[in-house]
Amino acid sequence: PFGTMAIQLAQHRGARVISTAHSLEDKQFLERLRPPVARVIDVSHGKTDVAGSCLEETGGLGVDIVLDAGVKLYSAEDESSSKSQLLPHKHDIITLLGVGGHWITTERNLQLDPPDSRSLFLKGATVSFLNDEIWNLSNVQQGRYLYILLVATWNSDCSQQHFSPFHFRPQLDEPIPLYEAKVSMEIVQKNQARKRQVIQF
User: Fold this and answer.
1) What are the pLDDT digits (tens) for 83-119?
2) Which parts of the chain are coiled coil (predicted)?
3) pLDDT tens digit string along 20-63?
4) What is the DSSP string of 87-128?
């Protein structure tokens, strides 16, 4: 859901979007989006050169903004989890950034070594951090976030296309029945999992 909304907001602002997909279902969903994504890179097999694909798509210039949903900090032998194997490596992200590019990361434990910092310095690139709670920390940003939610909700509820030329299309997880909502909420409250659920009435 995070990536899908980010893609559609970027397209709404006129950006040309390159996205990764971690499964065949995600790839098919992204390819059906309108306006279309410029390129969908399938990383489900873990052997895709994300940096090379992005540089090819941009004619070797690199991208202006990278928004990640996590990065691989170490080499493959140091990270064993299957999820981390699908994430792009931090060196790939630095490589695919263009001059003056911005890297927005959700990785809370990002560590940049001196060569990484030097590469970012030579490109004049910046690194920013994004987390779910950031919207609640600033009253100024809350209005912007509520506006995004309002537009997304209004467009999804609106059946007449002449109200807005752009419609957000959320990608929802499987809805759970109402009788399972209590169990799901208890799991979240006990900090056993952090997830968003759609409840079907």
Assistant:
1) 556 788 888 899 999 999 999 888 888 888 899 999 9
2) none
3) 888 888 888 888 888 888 888 888 777 778 888 888 888 889 89
4) SPBHHHHHHHEEEEEEEEE--TT----HHHHHHHHHHT-EEE
Task: Please report, for residues 24, 59, 75, 151, the alpha-carbon distance to residue 118 in angstroms, rounded to integers and kept in the order given.
Answer: 37, 23, 20, 40
- Residue keyed to tokens 């490109």: 123
Q: How far apart are CA 54 and CA 84, in angstroms?
A: 20
Domains along the sequence of the chain with CATH: 1-130 (3.40.50.720), 131-163 (no CATH), 171-200 (no CATH)
pTM summary value: 0.68
Q: What is the CA radius of gyration of the chain?
A: 19
- Across the chain, where does the E strand assignment appear? 18-21, 39-42, 63-67, 97-105, 126-129, 176-177, 199-200
Q: Are 93 and 66 in contact (CB under 8 A)?
A: yes
Distances (CA, A) of 69 to 17, 115, 117, 131: 15, 23, 21, 10
Length of the chain: 201
Name residue 95's amino acid. Answer: T
Pairing of strands 39-42, 63-67: unpaired
